[in-house]
Amino acid sequence: MEAKEQKRHQRKQSGPKAERKKSRKQRAPGAEPDEDERRRNPRAFAVQSAVRMAKTFHRAQDLKTKKHHIPLVDRTPLEPPPVVVVVVGPPRVGKSTIIRCLIKNFTRQKLGDICGPVTIVSGKKRRLTFIECGNDINTMIDLAKVADLVLMLIDASFGFEMETFEFLNILQVHGFPRIMGVLTHLDSFKNNKTLRKTKKRLKHRFWTEVYQGAKLFYLSGMVHGEYQAQEVKNLGRFISVMKFRPLVWQTSHPYVVADRMEDLTDPETLRVDPKCDRTVSLYGYLRGTYLKNKGQVHIPGVGDFAVADVSFLPDPCPLPEEQKKRALNQKERLLYAPMAGVGGVVYDKDAVYIDLVSSHVDQPQMRPTAELVQSLIGTHATLDAKLAASKVSLFSGAAAMTPGEQQAPLENRVWDPVTQRERRKAVFSDDEEEGDGDESYEGDEEGQSEQGDDEEGLQGGDEEEKSSGARESKVGEARRGQDEEEKAPRVKRQRLERVEAKPPVEMPAFADSEDDLEMSGDDGEQSEEDEREGAEGGTADSGHCSEEEVDDDDEDEAEDDNEEKQDGKEEEDDEEDDDYDDDEDSDMETEVTAPVNISKPVKAKVSVLSEEAEEDDGDAGELGNESTGALRWKEGLAQKASEAFLRQQQAAPNLRKLVYGSVIEEQNSPSDEDADEIGGLFRVSRPEKSRSRRVDAMDCSRFVPDSPHDWDQEEVLNSIRDCFVTGKWEESKDAATLLKEDEELYGDFEDLETGEVHHGKPAKEEDSEEEVMVKEDAEEEQKKKRLEKKRRLKERFDSEYDDGDATYFDDLKEEMQKQAELNRAEFENIDDEARVQYEGFRPGMYIRMEIPGLPCEFVNNFDPHYPIILGGLGASEGNVAVSPLQGLKKHRWHQRILKTRDPLILSLGWRRFQSIPLYHIEDHNGRHRLLKYTPQHMHCGATIWGPITPQGTGFLAVQSVSGTQAGFRIAATGVILDLDKSVTIVKKLKLIGYPYKIFKNTAFIKGMFNTMLEVAKFEGASVRTVSGIRGQIKKALRTPSGAYRATFEDRILMSDIVLLRSWCPVSVPQLYNPVTSLLQPVGQKDSWSGMRTLGQLKRDLGLRNKPNQDSLYKPVVRTKRHFNPLHIPKQLQKALPFKSKPKQDQKKGKTPRHLQRPAVIREPHERKVAALLTALSTVHNYKTKKAKAEQHAKHKEFLKQKEREEMEKLKRQKEARKKMYRIMGQKEKKRERSSLKGSSKDD
Amino acid sequence: MASQGLTYEGCNFFRQRLVLSTLSGKWVKIKNIRSKDDSPGLQDFEASFIRLMDKITNGTRIEINQTGTVLYYQPGLLFGGQVEHECNPQRSIGYYLEALLMLAPFMKKPLRAVLRGVTNDQKDPSVSPAASASENNSSHCCICNTIHVHTVDTLKVTSIPLMKSFGIDGEGLELKIMKRGMPPGGGGEVLFTCPVRRTIRPVQLTDPGKIKRIRGTAYSVRVSPQIANRIVDSARSILNKFIPDIYIYTDHMKGGNAGKSPGFGLALVAESTNGMFLSAELASNPQGQGSPMLPEDLGCNCAKLLLEEVYRGGCVDSTNQSLALLYMTLGQQDVSKLLLGPLSPYTIWFLLSSRPNLADPGLLLSPLPSRREFLRHIRDFFQIMFKIEVQKQEDESRRGGDKVLMTCMGAGYANISKTLK
């Protein structure tokens, strides 16, 4: 930045400095120089102080052990799910911009509105999911729980905002993911110095919040509304090489950040009751840990739900296949954002929108605006509504596209090996033609030139329908059909079809999948076949409606189908109904508009349009066909079932099936029961022997064989001979072989005394021996043996080598490592269908979860800007219990203290809920005493009625989640320490009684209790009076009831009050009110308000407490104090000394006239005499005064003189002393010198 | 916020259901408990078991209808601590103890349970209605024509070491027989203490090793002490053919420690080089029921039972299969492996009684049909499925019958009751 030119550093090429550097450089790699130094200068490395050495050693060891963490088994999946990058910051700070820039950086694509999670492939081994976090505290809390990396945007021109700190605190509570700060708006600084200072200040503040040295990124300015490419690139690099820490909560719970939502509710039920509960399927990558199929999930902002079904889908945004090259090519830079409308397809809750103004294949960069042109489908709308709503008619007749244009995408779609391509072509040829027509029509309508695009979009839609033909998704999973990115999803979709050919939904989770496994290959092929057929014929419906399919199905398939049918799945029927409706719809619409229906029939429709008339007929009469097809299907059912049954019986016994049963068994048993019905009305109650026996058998774990062996026979005895140490050992463990091996290993030795060299037996001999023993496959044997031997040797070596400095920690680590390897290896080779049943769904899979019973507001008020998180719940985390959250502390930044029984919103585990806490503190004797308020600076416990959550889980509390408030919103934080169903909190209760009769130390007390029984309960309890006299309750009295006799340590007064101090248990208010913020209407999602506090209620209703009159302040009126005069008896007065006697004298008033003395008037003579006398005395006075002054001056002079003399004297004395000291010093010196001299001389 | 639950029918596997329900937190409803029986509803011993569950938990909700044919059980949190329980003499203490073994590591406080009742028991079919209903399909031994309920002695020597291999060890783990009580009177007393763990270690027990020694206890109460010696002699006579390292202790309890009824029995355990234990046990007929037994017969039969157990093999004997599998399930999310002999009917549910041909001996399954099974329950409660692989034995290897290798991924279960300090 600084423009000042500085002189460049010149490296010395020659001279001593260069030499030194050279030598140092040469020395660097080897360890010898150190050795050399040690040898050369041993003293520098010698032990100076044993104590210090011990200290440094301890210090080093401390530091070393500090670095240790408890080793954990590494459970990260091999193909991890995309990293969740949450972009958070105050409004207008540039969150969307930075996401857009990063996406552009990674995928070269521009995105309009960032809506919902956006998943991209950022590198060969990493995918990223960007989520923008709004300013709503609900969103902040939810996303903090799933974030792997947080990009914290800070407006440098403004500084930190409260939201930033709030978010940091939320993160700290829920485990601390990686945080990267990003400073934006740096271009608003005009002054370079202020910029630098601001940067530094913000950085240091950020460090104190996160950790010292946390990365803070600077985005210096905008160019055309985007950040500078180089800076974004750097940021991207940081993100793509970042390592993440495993967070406890995340690694122990499965969770999905849903990136797609579909409403599966039956349209008919919807029509009847628009507010009915919805069945919704949610899609997303599974993260965290393994997810079991029928589990419970919590959707933050909605509530707890049981998952009806989970199935895994092919990855829509897969990592590139393994390859050697460095960078990703354009095709591999995938982008998947179903909610954001990328690739021209937007998934809404009930419709798929295709964006027609999307980028062309040839010019992918040209797409400045995203415009929704057409809503293709409204499943829930009636025909009229649909007609009214649809803006574009797809098939109104237009020019066909040139084949060249169509071919282009085909060629580009080279993504996978041959098979997939083949299939794609098959599907495509059909599609192309459809697309042809469609596209051209559209082009007409819209007057657009970018036909290729349209066509692709449509194709995507079509294809999607095809896949959804497998009844799984009513709302199709159309994928954007554009650009090269599109390739991956397409390829994947093919796989999906294969999977769905045998609908996993209808299979009970643990069906006899051994069979499935066997058949899986067949199925795959078959479905492929079907599909091809479908592609040709235009119906790729792998459902059960088409005839051919039933024919084609081999028995296995049929069996499956049967099972499904028998399950009595109503869904199927529903679907068929749907089909019917849709068909009709589309039939009618063909000419006018084409609302591309998302469910399968539409595809049929489209295909009809594209080509064959026969097919059309078939479609038109599909209802009929369907019904007949279904019937025919049912006909074969019984027979097929029996066949299957037979087959099963004949088949090799399959343990897993025996253990876990098969579907048929379960279905057969009820049918047996049904057989007992007479006329469909009555049931024969026949004690079913086998069943009752089964059901009510004795509960005993002993396993005694039915047909035991006869242990008297020798051969039976021999059959277990080798189970004992006395029996024969395996080759590898046999003592003889082990000895031999040892010989081989350690056989060679040299006897040092004699110098004789002993050689072990050469291995060949042994081999030859073996050859004699085992003729066939000796080679094989040998090889195996050698390998085995090698392995054992290595093991031994390893153990010996490691034992040297193997610590407990190392052992533990090794154990974990082994376990991790085993975990990875155990189920590796099983195919996914079966694997999912053993270990659950792996993290990293793209799954679809079907959740029934969601409130309709979830769908109606769906806003993709708010994240939907499906948090899996552990074993008993669905239950509610009282859980004391100990170690709760009011946040030091929160302005006010918290009050017991004021509702508080807690974020705990996945959940956000309102509950009523009771605060308490532990007394020294372990008693939990209720507190009215949280202490200001101390920890205290809190007990809430809330869901069971594992100990060690952090939580935070806010008082309200609605709107923005002034001040710091996080009221308290803490951690769950204990779970319990009962509470031990007590509060103090003082019972008051009054004595009514008092003997010496005994008193009768009344008014404390009401009955004798109550008193009996408190016999022996200690009481005390207000004045502190202690006593004990002795016995209840008959009258008055509730009175008792008590003894005290002293006599009490009638005016005393007697207290009994007791502790009374408090019950926890049972409020668990989940924060249903996601159900709020769009735009008001942050306005959820739950139960109000008492204070709020009073404020809102304008209520005030009637105060106690006695506690009111009144003006203080003080009466004037009047003191009586002090009266001293006369006797005393007499005895007192005068000083103390009261003085009678009063103030002199005016002397009365009669008491005034008359003025004296002098005679003239007297006057003269007086004047003379005055004159004389004046003269005398003057004289004396003068004399005194003179005297004084003289005396002063004298004093001066005296002082001078004194000075003189002192001076003299000083001189003399000086002289004397000098002489003394000289003498001393002389003496010293002489003594020195003398001694030397003496010597 | 309704928690999940499960509904079952019939009283079979009553303990499993309650134990798994308690561990998983799911409520369980059992209907039609002996509804067609002459004495419908829960039996005394089951009621006693429910009472025990109530004692060790906190906040459990139990609802039983008037006739006792429907039970609703909503589990609370496992509490533990000091528990004393008077076990119903219809079943031995082992019945109750097995459940405690499964639950004990997951309590809030270390369990210290004193159970009183019948320590060693052998059921006569005619006594218990439950047993009479299942006369020909329950654990009816053809060797000695009696029914065995494994007892405290067996659990002591097999379950405790098994628990240790799962990381539940330390000072607190102890099972002690204070007094012996034989049926029908009972009067025995057992002390069981167990420490608390937050998580359980995964195990890889795939190599049972070879049996290196056989130990045993021949006990006798209120009969001649000589009987124990006679049992020992006869048992040794059979086992000596295999291994010389046999030592059978004689345990003759007297006076207050001898319970209320006379009886005798033998418990044998075989220990392998890898620390695995296989056990067998036999007790005499209760007083006044059945024909008196000769101690020699009992010793022989018990030894044969042990050989049978050895034939089945595996790392865990048939009694402890469900315990071991449960611990595997409740482990962390790691792979556990366990080699077992044939799965016992208690461990398996095998529904189709109409398919006896599937249950040939080579199948590793008891031909006794109609057993609801532990693995199924585990699947119901924890959604954990085991990978089951059969390890066939070669013909010339004289190592007993075929084995089953059970593999599973733990549920990631953690003790939620334990207080964090």
UniProtKB/TrEMBL annotation, chain A:
Comp. bias (Basic residues): 1-27, 1211-1221
- Reaction equation(s) it catalyzes: GTP + H2O = GDP + phosphate + H(+)
Q: Where is the composition biased (Basic and acidic residues)?
A: 419-428, 466-482, 494-503, 685-696, 755-765, 1187-1210, 1225-1243
Listed Acidic residues bias regions: 429-465, 512-533, 548-590, 611-620
Where in the cell does this protein reside? Nucleus, Nucleolus
The Gene Ontology terms for molecular function here are: ATP binding; GTP binding; GTPase activity; U3 snoRNA binding
Q: Which Pfam family, just one, is annotated for this protein?
A: RIBIOP_C
Stretches assigned to the Bms1-type G domain: 80-245
- Annotated region Disordered: the residues are 1-43, 403-628, 666-696, 755-788, 1130-1166, 1182-1243
Keywords from UniProt, A to Z, are: ATP-binding, GTP-binding, Hydrolase, Nucleotide-binding, Nucleus, Phosphoprotein, Ribosome biogenesis
Record's Gene Ontology CC terms?
90S preribosome; nucleoplasm; small-subunit processome
The record's SUPFAM superfamilies line, in alphabetical order, gives: P-loop containing nucleoside triphosphate hydrolases
On the tree of life, the source organism's domain of life is: Eukaryota
Q: Name one GO biological process term.
A: endonucleolytic cleavage of tricistronic rRNA transcript (SSU-rRNA, 5.8S rRNA, LSU-rRNA)
- UniProt cross-references to InterPro entries, sorted A to Z: AARP2CN (IPR012948), Bms1/Tsr1 (IPR039761), Bms1_N (IPR037875), BMS1_TSR1_C (IPR007034), G_Bms1/Tsr1_dom (IPR030387), P-loop_NTPase (IPR027417)
Which Gene3D superfamilies does the UniProt record give? P-loop containing nucleotide triphosphate hydrolases (3.40.50.300)
Please report which protein family the annotation says this sequence is part of.
Answer: Belongs to the TRAFAC class translation factor GTPase superfamily. Bms1-like GTPase family. BMS1 subfamily.
- Its name, as the record gives it, is BMS1 ribosome biogenesis factor
What species does this protein belong to? Scleropages formosus
From TrEMBL, chain B:
Q: Where in the cell is it found?
A: Nucleus, Nucleolus
- Origin: domain of life: Eukaryota
A GO cellular component annotated for this chain's UniProt record is: nucleolus
Q: Where is the RNA 3'-terminal phosphate cyclase insert domain?
A: 206-310
Q: What is its main location?
A: nucleus
Q: Which CDD domains match?
A: RNA_Cyclase_Class_I (cd00875)
GO BP terms: namely: endonucleolytic cleavage of tricistronic rRNA transcript (SSU-rRNA, 5.8S rRNA, LSU-rRNA)
Q: Which UniProt keywords apply?
A: Nucleus, Ribosome biogenesis
* InterPro entries cross-referenced by the UniProt entry: RNA3'-term_phos_cycl_insert, RNA3'_phos_cyclase_dom, RNA3'_phos_cyclase_dom_sf, RNA3'_term_phos_cyc, RNA3'_term_phos_cyc_type_2, RNA3'_term_phos_cycl-like_CS, RNA3'P_cycl/enolpyr_Trfase_a/b, RPTC_insert
Q: Keyword Ion transport, does the record have it?
A: no
The positions making up the signal sequence are none
- Provide a Gene Ontology MF annotation, just one: RNA endonuclease activity
Report the family membership.
Belongs to the RNA 3'-terminal cyclase family. Type 2 subfamily.
Q: What is this protein called?
A: RNA 3'-terminal phosphate cyclase-like protein-like
Please name the source species: Scleropages formosus (Asian bonytongue)
